């Protein structure tokens, strides 16, 4: 009887062990099957993404090539008539050219500038041609001042359709000679102000389901140069801000909010007085203003002046650093061009506007 019971218990234990091993084998098999299934689905998704990207590459590159060689008069451009366009640093240099040209296109132009006398002059110029513009003396480096005047614009003019962040300053000294307060001022005007102005008007654009934000960048946002540690730093930041904001808007489906960044070479205004480019002539404010407006009307995303710079400057990432420096110094002659740049005169009455690469 004892042997019988002992044998029965042993058999039960053995059967239990066999079941446990069998269950574990089943679990391992199911886990492996599940893993293989996930791996297969992931691989298929990746293959599908590659197919889609390949198709989109053909379509978008083809579209880009076609548009590049299409004459301007054949390309569609949106009307700016009655559009409320707010322009920072709009009383001098490129800003003044933009103000006049936008007014001629029947837009409702709102000009922000810290220089009240310059605001009066640009208002007079527009009035002589029969155009009304709205001017506000605004210190865009002051967040609260920006928000206060943004509310005034909304109540007195209306909701802004197009925001052009054009204002900018440069100190014009080598790094150790830049006063600390000027480094802070440059960042406040050239990049932090973009946060305040964009925050002030983007919410209304989202509610209305349309809008356009334009960032005046610079070629120094793609390639740093002599006497521009402050300016170039802010322009690199402006590029990052602009691209990141565009990514957020597109991710959340706000495709009706257009984004345009314009990166010009040196511009012939007082801001870069003393700068003497060795190989390429400086751009004229009227040409920069004309190109920016064209970019807005075409809803272009990325513009460099000259156009070839968008293809050439990124090459610095694909060649040896020593060669990149040799090209910059011996061929482009960037440092030599900037040697004579005159320092910025810090004055509360100075017109603040973008003027260069």
TrEMBL record:
Keywords: Membrane, Oxidoreductase, Transmembrane, Transmembrane helix. It holds the Pfam family adh_short. The chain crosses the membrane at residues 47-74. InterPro entries: NAD(P)-bd_dom_sf (IPR036291), Sc_DH/Rdtase_CS (IPR020904), SDR_fam (IPR002347). PROSITE patterns: ADH_SHORT (PS00061). It comes from the Eukaryota. Belongs to the short-chain dehydrogenases/reductases (SDR) family. This is Short-chain dehydrogenase/reductase family 16C member 6 isoform X1. It comes from Nicrophorus vespilloides (Boreal carrion beetle). The lineage of its organism: Eukaryota, Metazoa, Ecdysozoa, Arthropoda, Hexapoda.
């Amino acid at each position: 009887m004892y042997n019988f019971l002992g044998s029965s218990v042993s058999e039960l234990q053995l059967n239990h062990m066999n079941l446990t091993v069998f269950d574990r084998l089943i679990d391992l098999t199911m886990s492996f099957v599940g893993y293989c299934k996930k791996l297969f689905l992931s691989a298929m998704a990746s293959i599908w993404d590659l197919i889609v990207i390949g198709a989109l590459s053909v379509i978008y590159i083809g579209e880009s090539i076609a548009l590049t060689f299409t004459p301007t008069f054949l390309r569609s451009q949106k009307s700016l008539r009655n559009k409320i366009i707010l322009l920072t640093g709009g009383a001098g240099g490129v800003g003044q050219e933009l103000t006049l040209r936008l007014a001629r296109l029947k837009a409702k132009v709102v000009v922000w500038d810290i220089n009240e006398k310059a605001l009066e002059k640009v208002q007079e110029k527009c009035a002589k041609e029969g155009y009304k513009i709205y001017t506000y003396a605004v210190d865009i480096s002051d967040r609260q001042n920006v928000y206060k005047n943004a509310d005034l614009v909304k109540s007195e003019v209306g909701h802004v359709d197009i925001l052009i962040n054009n204002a900018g300053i440069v100190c014009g000294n080598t790094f150790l000679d830049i006063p600390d307060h000027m480094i802070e001022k440059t960042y406040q005007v050239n990049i932090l102000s973009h946060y305040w102005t964009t925050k002030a008007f983007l919410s209304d654009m989202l509610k209305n389901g349309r809008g356009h934000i334009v960032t005046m960048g610079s070629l120094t946002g793609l390639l740093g140069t002599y006497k521009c540690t402050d300016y170039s730093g802010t322009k690199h930041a402006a590029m990052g801000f602009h691209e990141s904001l565009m990514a957020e808007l597109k991710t959340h489906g706000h495709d009706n909010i257009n984004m345009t960044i314009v990166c010009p070479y040196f511009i012939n205004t007082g801001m870069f007085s003393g700068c003497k480019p060795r190989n390429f002539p400086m751009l004229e404010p009227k040409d920069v203003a004309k190109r920016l407006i064209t970019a807005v009307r075409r809803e272009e995303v990325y513009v460099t002046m000259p156009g070839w710079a968008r293809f050439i400057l990124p090459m610095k990432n694909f060649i040896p650093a020593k060669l990149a420096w040799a090209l910059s110094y011996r061929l482009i002659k960037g440092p030599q061009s900037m040697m004579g740049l005159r320092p910025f005169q810090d004055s509360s009455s100075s017109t603040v506007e973008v003027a260069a690469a």
